[in-house]
Amino acid sequence: MLAKCIQTRRGKTVGERYKFQAHWDVDTLAMVNVRNMGPVKNSFKVLVSANARMFQCQTAKEKREWIEVMDATKRRHLSKEEEEIQQPPTSPTTNPFAPAAKRQSKVEELMQGSKDEETRDLLNLIENRSEDLDVFIAQRNFEHGVGVILELKELVASIPIEQARKEAEGKLETRVQQLVEVLCGELKTTPDRSLRRGSAVLRRPVSLLIQLGQVSKACRLFLKNRSGAIEFALQQLRTEGSITLFINKLSKLFFTYLNETAGEFEISFGEINGCFSAFTVWLETEMKLFVEKISSQVFSGNTEITDVAECVSNAQTHCAQLKSRGLEVDFLLNNLLMRHIQAAIKDHRQKIIDATKLRNSEEGWRPVNMGTPQAADRLVEEMNQLGLKKFEDFRYQSCFIQLTTSSLAFTRALISHVDTCVKMVMPELEKSMLNGIFDIASCYTVFIDGCLKAERDGNKDKFQLIKQNATFLAISLFPLIEQKLKKNLSHPPRKLEELRTSFLRDISK
């Protein structure tokens, strides 16, 4: 029964009365849900034959209660009539085709009609929203476009007729692919667009692709875009000035891009499982390309070992800034550089040994004459800066040094080699570095020891000069080398200590 509430007023008293409007049998009507669209919310329709009435509730809970009560009432009514049909006939005149069955078929027809009507309404709404989607894509208003697609997915899922729902899903999938292709175009690497504007411009299309369920595609295109941006930026860097300055700029630019990419990746994909493995693979690939680039510049064979050490140190320093993002990639950089560094150190060691042997063959054992006291002062200052604080003890007569030119050249070469090694030190290379330094030191000590034995019964002045050079090595140079190695390496230089001890014992005889 449908009645309308009419308020009445008598003085200050407000009353209510109800006016009858219509009456329907329960088994001749159907109640269907109405989706929330615009101002129409929390509504349902009552279908009676060809007529339909819409009612709106204050809350969704109230609407749900109305529908549940109506469904329960109809079920009780229909079950009661079925029980009456199943009872044996009380008279021979009973009609086997009960009116309840007819009324039940009418309800089913009403329900089917309501489904058809709801489907038509939904398809019309989907068509209208699809046209809005085309407009948003044309206007590059992708946020609203994605919102429309999400709304269309809900509408399509609520279509009651299966065949119509499948057709609508196919059309919607075509629309989704159209928008995905446009968003993917936003992530393509073009020098005149995203490569020059940084990684933040990728956040918008990446976020929209994720909302559309295209996570893997968004991740792949984002990383591909950043690879193109890094390659473009490194190509724009000009090779000018010293090699150390160029590598410093190159390393700073590369690791700044990596740091920026890592931050943007964390913002876009931080809450999505499985994406960081793709970022790790991408990071390793980019590191390999970077090492190949600097290796072709630094380890070409014509670069001084001190410049090589400076370049490696610059790359390691800039690499350390990724630790702020929680990325420990120092080991990866060192692993990629290891064979190049090892080859450079080995080559430099051999050059020092060959040069030392050549000078040894031409040694005349004459003390160094600096010519002027000022020149001698500069030499003393140079050696003090190298760490030889007692070098003044080997100076006499203002401008003479109780060492030979070979000893001075060997001192400079050995200290330079050690400083280079500790600057590029890696745990995996420490033993080979120590062995190389030992080979250089033993090359010269063996030569001096042989000269001492040869001149022991010969020229006393020459013997004394040889002994002064040997003393300088044992008490000044080798202790300084051991101190540098102990400070920067985890392995103690035992072989060098044993060499110094035995050498000192031999020259003291």
Could you give a short description of this structure?
The protein is mainly alpha-helical and 509 residues long. The protein contains 16 helices and eight strands.
Number of strands: 8
| Uncertain segments | 90-94, 100-104
Helix segment count?
16
Radius of gyration: 45 Å
What portion of residues is helical? 55-70%
Q: Oligomer, anyone? A: single chain
**How is the biggest beta sheet arranged?**
3 strands, antiparallel
- Across the major sheet, the strand order is 3-4-5
Q: Label the structural class.
A: mainly alpha
> What do the pLDDT scores average to?
83
- Any idea what the shape is? rod-shaped
Distance between the termini: 128 Å
Q: Tell me what portion of residues adopts beta-strand conformation.
A: 5-15%
Order of helices and strands: EEEEEHHHHHHHHHHHEHEEHHHH
Explain what this protein looks like in three dimensions.
This protein has 509 residues and is mainly α. The longest helix has 40 residues, at 99-138. It is rod-shaped. α6 (203-211) packs antiparallel against α7 (215-236). The strands form three sheets. Strands 3-4-5 form a three-stranded antiparallel beta sheet, with helices on both faces. It contains 16 helices and eight strands. The model is unreliable at 90-94 and 100-104 (pLDDT under 50).
